[in-house]
Amino acid sequence: MIHAQQDNNLSHEMLRIVTATHHDPFEVLGRHPLGDKATADMDTLVRIYIPGARSAALLIGNQAISMVRVEGTDFFVWRGLSKDLPIHYQIHWFDRHNLPHTEFDPYCFAPQLGDIDMHLFAEGQHWNIHEHLGAHPRTVEGVDGVVFATWAPNAERISVVGDFNDWDGRAHPMRVRGGSGLWELFIPGVKAGAIYKFEIRNRASGAVFLKSDPYGQAFELRPQTGTIVKSSSEYKWQDTQWINKREHWNWQASPMSVYEMHLGSWRRGWVGEFLNYREIAHQLVDYIKPLGFTHVEVLPVSEHPFDDSWGYQTTGYFAPTSRFGSPDDFRYFVDYLHQHDIGVILDWVPAHFPKDAHALARFDGSALYEHEDPRLGEHRDWGTLIYNYGRNEVRNFLLASALFWLKEYHLDGLRVDAVASMLYLDYSREHDQWLPNKYGGNENLEAMDFLKQLNEVCHGQVPGALVIAEESTSWPQVTRPTWVGGLGFSMKWNMGWMHDTLDYFSKDPIHRQYHHNQLTFGMIYAFTENFQLPFSHDEVVHGKGSMLNKMPGDDWQKFANLRLLYTYMYTYPGTKLLFMGCEFGQWSEWAAGRSLDWHLMDFAPHQGLHGLVKDLNHCYRNMPSLYERSFRHDGFEWIDCHDSTQSIISYIRKSDEGFCIVVLNFTPIARANYRIGVPVAGTYHEVLNSDSSFYGGSNYGNSSPLATQEVPWMNHQQSLDINLPPLGALILKLS
Prior knowledge:
This protein has about 725 residues and is α+β, with helices and mostly antiparallel strands. It contains 15 helices and 37 strands.
């Protein structure tokens, strides 16, 4: 027999439900044995709390048994026999608009987070924690719904709020799992596509606020900040051949030429709108495949609220931005590039995060992901917060994010932003604005350990994946293995070479003879790390001028200088990176709010520069001497680095199969009968002349094959007599 009985007494625990302060609503709501109050015809109580409900009934079999409202409240109770009650029972209720609802009671389901998952997360060792925290559609014992979970140890109460419960924090309070700081709730009936946030009440202050999900995998389009419940992807990848090849790729002896780009401003639609990831993929392959780049590096596509941050102030560490489409659209972008033999690297930002109120900042009302002390926890230059790398759960959050992008989206590598700011406690700080480590030094020991672990985990879990450091100081062994004391990165941006080179090229050629060391100094340390040579987005914004406008002289000299610069980069040891627009010579600085100046491609000088970059890429990829020993000292040899008076340098690049000769003239004076020593007698020919008329140059060079002469020169027994073009570079090879 089934009974309903009125209960007019509100206990302290029930009051905590009403006031939305309870840390474990399962103590009050759901099914409970009556214990010593049990009788022969009632041994179980069901209590529900539905704000705004007009009435409620318990569905048992074919019967709808009215539940009794606790007078003056939105509690409803039922008392009866446990044997009559399904394990997972349904509630039928009418809302304030007298609309009916039928749903399973969330508070009759067991916990969903496993003990092992919670243990690994507490240790900072759960590489797939994003599969458990966040929002995940699940079928629990035959009932469909969504499991919500988050980490917030200093919360007094957390509720899931969304369009499925009128954003009412009293409707779905979560339960805390012991002392783990983890909160969870399975809500039956919620489906993929639902928009939600976490409503959090801080234990110390009582403040109540809304937060987006740190582990969310899809978000609303800005300026909205809600998280979207994402269904499991059914995307069918077509890049198996690429992934298998990558696993065995010897990247240290392979060409790597990277086209760095910002998806929002590479190209736009007819009315200035963003293109979809899929549209970009097709247009991009058609453009850069003929150009010969091996990889694309995209500025952060992880969700971010502010367009002008270019993605570097990330709020969604597990979500591609909705600006350009859905997560599956981004999968298509990566897949399509892979099918056309182009790798994809993602800018990833573990150094800092923004202060936006809806995101990670003071997530549970305390400094959770960041440090409490601003001397450790704030980048004042950038107005952002610094992660607390010493906290296991924070470190796990970041490590899981890195692996998520590499595995879930098949990315070929991560370029880790602002590594220097992570390594130094006094980075961009006055003497009284930072705290030393336990040894009194300025090294961030916790960040060091995190970066080592990042590289070990990424390289171990994803064979062939690259992790590249943007590190601008002389920190030792950035790209050396962790087991010999290094940080373990695959490569490091060669910022010293880049700054010295651009400073040298900015000078009038008449003065370059006094700065010759800026060309030669880099070779002292060129093989201390695995270097990538970057002319990145950072060099063409904020008043620094475009690459073309950095060059001195009239328009002809500007283009000639830039052709010379690119030839120098492509023949210098290290992999290559060039930012979009630099390949055809934009006059203006990069502007993230609009498309590149593609109309410039209608003009011959820009076409010539574009053609040179294409030929340099193909030269680089087809000549092992330019890439096979990029990180080895035996792949480079000076012919002459001392001709400062004429501002000329010459060198040999070597591989197992042969060598090539590179000669560069950094003045606008053509040099006839310029003699260089060569290691092998024979006939040489021009592989590339940056002054060719094909590229818009003066076409001064060496049209016929060049035969060596037995004239000892520059420590070689053989030499060549060559014509050296003005502001030009030659690549010569033995015929």
